[in-house]
Amino acid sequence: MTPAAPNVPTDRLGRLPDTMAASFLSRAVVEEDAPVPAERLRQGISYWFPDERRWTTGELDSLLEESADRIRTGGSPASLDQWLAPRLHSTLRLTRAEATDNQLWNYIGLVMGAELIRLRWGRPAGGRRIVGQAARFAGRWDIQYFSRLWWAAELFRNGDDYEPVVTACANQDVLHTALRLDLVNHRPTAQALLRLLQKEVVRTGRDINGLVKAAGSAASTIVYEVVAPDQPRDHEAQAAWIASQTDVYWQPNRLPQGPFDGRVDEKSVARLVAQFEELFRTAPVRDKKDVREETTNV
Amino acid sequence: MKSVFPYQILSRDVRLTVDGLRIDNVPAPLDAYVSDAQQVVALQALTESNENWREVRLMVSVTADAEELANGPWHDIVCVAVVTNRRANVYTVFPLSSDGTGRWTGDVELPRGEHVGRSELTVRVVASVDGVPGRLIGAAPDPWYIAFQAKQPVADRVIPMRWVEFSKQEGFEQYVDDPWLLDFDAGDPFLHLNSEFDGLREALQRSGSAEQRLFGEVLGSQIATEVWASLFGSALYATELDAGQVVWPEGWLGDVLRELLPDMYPDVEVEEKLAELVAERVAGGSGADLQRRLHHAAGRRALRTRKLSAGLRDLRKLSTKKEIR
C-alpha cells in the first residue's frame, strides 16, 4: 500500500478509508448541500490497485454523467436504478472479494459520484437537494448507493443475463429488504423471488416482506438448496470476464452481457416458485404497523 | 440444532472433518493449514507463500451414526457441505457422496475471488420425512472456520496500533491532546496512539525506567479494557434484529460479541441473550447491569486484575529497594 503520490494520474480508482469518509461527510454535506471538500479529500486517498484497465475511471465517469443527465431530464429514481445497476456491474469488473472493499465504494461515492447521489437521493428543500443520509455516500454495503446497485446486479443476475436485475431494481423493497438476506445468496431462490414479482403474485413491499419472512422460517426445516439445487458456477469464466478488455462496457439502450458463469437451473426455479406461491398464499396476514417498521429500517 | 422440528431428526452427532487440502490442484500438507481440534483451516499465510493462488480445495468427510440412519423414518438421505462468506454474500452448496454406511465424502471448492476475511463450512443431512422432501434432519454442531486474512486465530486477536502525530493527522483536530483514540477502518478497529503525548511511548514500549515499565504494563491493560468495552458498544450498536432473529455484525465486531458475551453471561445461550440486549437497546433501557458485566468481561480480556496486582506488587518492591539504597 503506497500513499498517494502527488503526481498520481487522476484517471485511476483509489481507496478512501472509512474514518476519512466519515469526517468529510459533515452535517453541511449531508443535511444541507455543501459540496464535498474535494481538495482536502485528495489527501486521504491511496492508490494501490494494480495497473489494469479495470481500475481506471474513464468508463465509470461517463456512466455516472449519463446517469445524472437522466435524473436532470426527469427520470425517476427507480428507473435510474434499473438502468444503472447492470451497467455499473459490467463497467466495474470486480470479484466479490474485491467488492467487499468499503474503501473503494467510499472513493466512488465521495470523489466520483457525490453529485449523482445528491440528484438520486436528495429531497428538494428550499431550492436545494438534501440527501439526509450519510450512508448513501459511505456506509454499509446494502445502503451505500453504488455498492448496493453493484451487489443487486451480482446477486440477481442470471449468469450473463442482466434482465432479472432490472426487475429487482424496479422494486425498492427488493433492495431495502431482500438484498441483505442470506436467502438471496442462493441463486435459484433469488430468481424465484423475482419471478413472483413478475407474475405479480407479490406486488408491494408488504408482500415481499411477508414472503421473505415465511420463506425464511420455512428454511429452518426445509433445505431449499437440496430441493432446488443450483448449478455449480463457472468461476474460471467469471475470472476471464473480469479480466477481459472490451471496447464497450455499457450502452445507453442495450443491456450489457454479464459473465458466462452459468445460468440457474430452470427446474429448480420453477420448483421454488411453486413452493413460495403456496407459502405466500397460506402466510398469516401481515399487519400494517409491522411492515412500516421494516421498510423504514434501511 | 436448536429449532423445534415437527418430525424426527438425528439424535446422535454428525461429525465433519477435513481430510485433505489442495492448492491449485497441488496437494498441500494438512498439518500446515488444518487444526482439527479448533476446527480451523488457516490460510492466512497462503498469499505470502503462493502469491497467485486461485483456488483451494478441501476434501471433507462427514460421519453420522449408521445404525440410527438405517432404522429411522428417513428416505432419500443426502448430505451437503455448505460454504458461506458473509461479507462476500457467498452461499455455496456441495453435494457429498455416500458410501452407504453413514459416511459421506466430497470436495469443497474455495475460489479466491469469493472469499474474504473468514468463511464458514457447515454440513447438513437432509432427507424425505413423512413424504416431505428436503427436510433438515441433522447438522454438525459447530462450523469450521476458514481464515483467509486474520493474522491470529480469532481468540488471540490483537488490535492493530499505530503511533501518529495527532496534530498532523487529518480529522484529529479536536483530539490533539488525547493520548489515544480508537478508530474504525473498513469495520476493523484501529488504535491510534499519540506520539506527541509526552512519555507515552516510553511507558508503553517499556523502554524507560523500571517505574515507567511498570506503569506501561498497567496502562496497557487499562487501554485494552477501554478498547474492548467500546468495541462491544459499537458491536451491539451494529447488531440488528430481523423478525426476532439476531443479524450478527460482520468481521471484528461479530467476534468481539462472541468473545465477550460468554464471559458476561456465563449461564445463558449467547444468541438469545444478544437478541434480548438488542431489543432492550431499541426500547431504550438504561443498560446498568450490562455495563457492570461488560467492564468485568473487558477487564478479564485485558488481564486487568493480573496486571494491576502484579504491577502494584512490583511497585512496592521497587520503592522498598529505593529506601534501602
How would you summarize the topology of this molecule?
The complex is a heterodimer of chains A (298) and B (325).
Chain A: H1 18-24, H2 27-30, H3 38-44, H4 58-72, H5 77-91, H6 96-99, H7 102-112, H8 114-121, E1 123-125, E2 128-130, H9 145-156, H10 163-170, H11 172-178, H12 187-198, H13 205-218, H14 224-227, H15 235-243, H16 266-282, H17 288-296
Antiparallel strand pairs in A: 1-2
Chain B: E1 15-23, E2 26-27, H1 30-33, E3 34-35, E4 40-42, H2 46-49, E5 55-63, H3 66-71, E6 74-85, E7 90-95, E8 97-98, E9 103-111, E10 118-129, E11 132-139, E12 144-147, E13 161-164, E14 180-185, E15 188-194, H4 200-204, H5 210-237, E16 240-242, E17 245-247, H6 251-264, H7 270-283, H8 288-301, H9 304-324
Parallel strand pairs in B: 4-12, 13-15
Antiparallel strand pairs in B: 1-2, 1-5, 3-4, 5-9, 6-7, 6-10, 8-9, 10-11, 10-12, 14-15, 16-17
Give a written overview of the molecule.
- Chain A: It holds the Pfam family DUF6339.
- Chain A: InterPro entries: DUF6339.
- The complex is a heterodimer of chains A (298) and B (325).
- Chain A is mainly alpha-helical and 298 residues long.
- Chain A folds into 2 domains: 8-156, no CATH class; 159-298, no CATH class.
- Helices cover 55% and strands 2% of the residues of chain A.
- Chain A has 17 helices and 2 strands.
- Chain A has helices at residues 18-24, 27-30, 38-44, 58-72, 77-91, 96-99, 102-112, 114-121, 145-156, 163-170, 172-178, 187-198, 205-218, 224-227, 235-243, 266-282, 288-296; strands spanning 123-125, 128-130.
- A two-stranded antiparallel sheet of chain A has the order 1-2.
- In chain A, a hairpin with a 2-residue loop joins strand 1 and strand 2.
- In chain A, helix 5 (77-91) packs across helix 9 (145-156), helix 5 (77-91) runs antiparallel to helix 10 (163-170) and helix 9 (145-156) crosses helix 10 (163-170).
- Chain A is globular, with a radius of gyration of 20 Å.
- Mean pLDDT of chain A is 86; it is low at 1-7 and 287-298.
- Chain B is an alpha+beta fold.
- Chain B folds into 2 domains: 15-154, Immunoglobulins (Immunoglobulin-like, Sandwich); 161-320, no CATH class.
- Helix content of chain B is 34%, strand content 31%.
- Chain B contains 9 helices and 17 strands.
- Chain B has helices spanning 30-33, 46-49, 66-71, 200-204, 210-237, 251-264, 270-283, 288-301, 304-324, and strands at residues 15-23, 26-27, 34-35, 40-42, 55-63, 74-85, 90-95, 97-98, 103-111, 118-129, 132-139, 144-147, 161-164, 180-185, 188-194, 240-242, 245-247.
- In chain B, the strands form 4 sheets. In chain B, strands 3, 4, 6, 7, 10, 11 and 12 form a 7-stranded mixed β-sheet that branches. Chain B has a 5-stranded antiparallel β-sheet with strand order 2-1-5-9-8, with no helix packed on it. A 3-stranded mixed β-sheet of chain B has the order 13-15-14.
- In chain B, strand 10 (118-129) and strand 11 (132-139) form a beta hairpin.
- Chains A and B meet through helix 1, helix 3, helix 6, helix 9 and helix 13 of A and strand 6, strand 7, strand 11 and strand 14 of B.
